[in-house]
Specification:
eight-stranded antiparallel β-barrel, Porin, 2 domains, flat, mainly beta
Length: 387
């Protein structure tokens, strides 16, 4: 628990770095309600999920904020009655929040919101005492949410209504890993400490960085628990050692694309090969994989939001799992060929100001959207400096 919780807290602190020097721009409190989706037939019974949340946002200006239409950012805490206290318990979430606004009139604006962080649940799966909870296999899991809504402002206040979708998963690090998926309705009231009126902001030349190519070097350690998504194994956590090299192209100030060749050795694959007698567990090549990955990165100062997809060039163990263990259908066959990744990256020094930009990265490697393993990596981006 503590290692996962530490990673989440450190990530949130990094994402909020520099904002503590800005003035607080506002606080928001409200309620939420939604019905958890039954994505597996043996999920525990549950009623309407309901709870409350509070968001604290920071002000301040930066060239990147303006490029993202004066994005608001801050921290959101939430409490969840998960709909079945005896089995699912209660949840406490904390997330980094980014809000993108579009003014309709001086008083009305629409917005889109993205939150990323973690959730602590009071009654996760337990082999002896709580076998019915296959939604949360661990007490700490990732928590993501996306929203769209409308605000009505009056004086230095506002009321907001938003439709939201919440997802929680432990990224296959502990089984079971069905995860939580909840469409939500959220109603809130906000108090602004100061109001920035976009209508009267001065026109000026937008911040811009020239297009440029770069070289990316990356290494990561991944981990997961071997087994199926639903059935608990109560087994060991298995490591993956991943390395990659690729070319990048920053074609807009806030957009970068990449093409990389990545390979990894998987101790869980070695377990499969040994237990199924497909290969000797000491045959490292048989327990390895090679991927060609196409990626896109949204850039925001020191941060990058990474979305990857690609093709497995070599993955003999996954071939055997799909062909000999799982049912051969479109989903399993597609999973065999299409790896992906969702990740957040923090640059210690901005690439536009330095020849080499070192970074740390936290992400989830997937197979066609199904979580495969969590990874923590380091790397370096080498590209031309600005000017």
């Amino acid at each position: 628990m503590y290692s996962r919780l530490t990673v989440i807290i450190v990530l949130l602190l990094l994402m909020n770095k520099g904002q503590a020097q800005s003035n607080f721009s506002g606080v928001e409190v409200g309620g939420l309600a939604g019905q958890m989706l039954d994505i597996y037939p043996n999920m525990p019974q549950h009623d309407l999920q309901r709870g409350g949340f509070m968001s604290l946002r920071c002000g301040g200006k930066s060239p990147y904020r303006e490029l993202y239409n004066n994005v608001e950012s801050g921290i959101q805490a939430s409490f969840h009655d998960l709909g079945n206290p005896s089995v699912l318990g209660y949840g406490i979430g904390i997330q980094y929040q980014a809000t993108f606004n579009q003014y309709i009139t001086r008083r009305i604006r629409s917005f889109q919101r993205f939150n990323v962080g973690g959730i602590y649940v009071t009654k996760p799966y337990d082999y002896l005492n709580n076998q019915s909870n296959n939604v949360f296999g661990s007490d700490v899991s990732a928590l993501l949410s996306v929203s769209a809504g409308v605000r009505y402002k009056f004086r230095q206040n506002a009321i907001a209504l938003q439709a939201s979708y919440w997802h929680s998963s432990n990224a296959h690090t502990v089984l079971p890993n069905v995860g939580m998926n909840v469409p939500m309705v959220m109603l809130s009231i906000e108090k602004f400490f100061h109001i920035e009126d976009i209508y009267i902001m001065e026109e000026k030349e937008p911040f811009s960085i020239d297009s440029r190519f770069g070289l990316m070097l990356y290494g990561a350690m991944g981990f997961n628990e071997a087994g199926g998504t639903v059935r608990p194994t109560n087994g060991n956590t298995y490591r993956k050692q991943l390395a990659g090299i690729g070319a990048t192209y920053r074609f807009r100030t806030i957009h970068r694309v990449s093409l990389s060749l990545e390979g990894y050795h998987d101790d869980a694959y070695a377990l499969w090969n040994n237990s199924m007698e497909w290969a000797n567990s000491k045959d490292n090549l048989a327990s390895s994989a090679l991927m060609l990955i196409l990626g896109h990165e949204f850039i925001f100062g020191h941060f990058g939001w990474i979305v990857n997809a690609g093709v497995n060039l070599y993955n003999p163990t996954l071939d055997r799992i799909v062909n000999e263990v799982e049912q051969r259908n479109f989903s399993s066959l597609s999973k065999r060929y299409v790896p992906g990744r969702f990740a957040v990256r923090y640059y210690f020094n901005k690439s536009e100001k330095h020849l080499g930009a070192a970074f740390v990265q936290l992400g989830v490697k997937s197979n066609l959207g199904q979580a495969d393993f969590m990874e923590i990596g380091i790397g370096c981006l080498i590209s031309k400096k600005q000017g």
